[in-house]
Design brief:
The structure is a homodimer of 191-residue chains.
Chain A: E1 14-19, H1 26-39, E2 44-48, H2 49-56, H3 64-83, E3 87-91, H4 97-107, E4 110-116, H5 119-125, H6 130-136, E5 157-160, H7 166-179
Helix pairs in contact in A: 1-7, 2-3, 3-4
Chain lengths: 191, 191
Amino acid sequence: MTSSNGHRTPHAGLTIWLTGLSGAGKTTIADRLETELVARGRRVEKLDGDVVRQHLSKGLGFSKEDRDENVRRIGWVAHRLTHHGATVIASVISPYRDIRAEARELIGDFFEIYVKCALDVLVRRDPKGLYAKAFSGEIPNFTGVSDPYEEPLFPELTLETANETVEQSVDRIITRLEEAGLLVEPAATVA
Amino acid sequence: MTSSNGHRTPHAGLTIWLTGLSGAGKTTIADRLETELVARGRRVEKLDGDVVRQHLSKGLGFSKEDRDENVRRIGWVAHRLTHHGATVIASVISPYRDIRAEARELIGDFFEIYVKCALDVLVRRDPKGLYAKAFSGEIPNFTGVSDPYEEPLFPELTLETANETVEQSVDRIITRLEEAGLLVEPAATVA
């Protein structure tokens, strides 16, 4: 990432993909992670599943087919941004293993993080009342309740958000990215 | 774009937006322009309207509402790529003035090129037989035939593709980009 005379060259792109149930902490972690990565000189693009839906997937619902198409679109945009050197943080439930695998294959520089939290903990917290509505049937096709969630088999990292703070989760991500050689400390880029 | 010691710093992003009727030459010009810009050290992303439809707009048709939504999605992706320093070449019919204006406002660094060709010339050429099908009614909602095309009022450049070669068109684009200070000659970035 750094030329011999210490001048910073553009970073290689990377997609950090946060998958997990609604309420598990993806968005909160993404926000904090963004701050840490920007401090390390990365150009960050957050692609939040709910936000991107407004831009790219109006009219799509929550059937498997529509969810897959939404995740594919996020994957495609992440791919193009990663190609141009951005560090993409995608936070999207992305419940199906095969579509996450598609995104991984397409993007290449892909770091999958399972944001894991037991359903009973999520149901107890439920700050937006979504799980209550899902169990009552008011919200159909709710991942983890009335729709499947396929856990990652080999994620780069699993965060147990019932047992660790957001700070601890983000520290673990940063450490793993550094170990994988995917981050350059800012100090190293100054001559 | 160039630091005082001649080391190249990342380019600022830019979206070059080619609008015009089907067959007017947008894709051909985009391809040739890409080659020229890559030779000048730009990271180029081509967003072809027909190609992007496959990635972002499956299920959308050609009503005004669906066309607008498709163009909005391309505009949003161009915006994010431009933000990350890419030179985006969007080639998309984008027949409606207000949606092009939306893209311009969103993206900011926006260079609109009207790829202009008279309808009778397009009908005479018609290599894919699309205009014949449009006039027979086999293809409905065809821009310029059964659907409106609103010419740009103040494009950064108008190319008259019935009267100039592709090389001439691309030369004119490069010249205008240089005049606008939007290109840095490769020689200038070497110490």
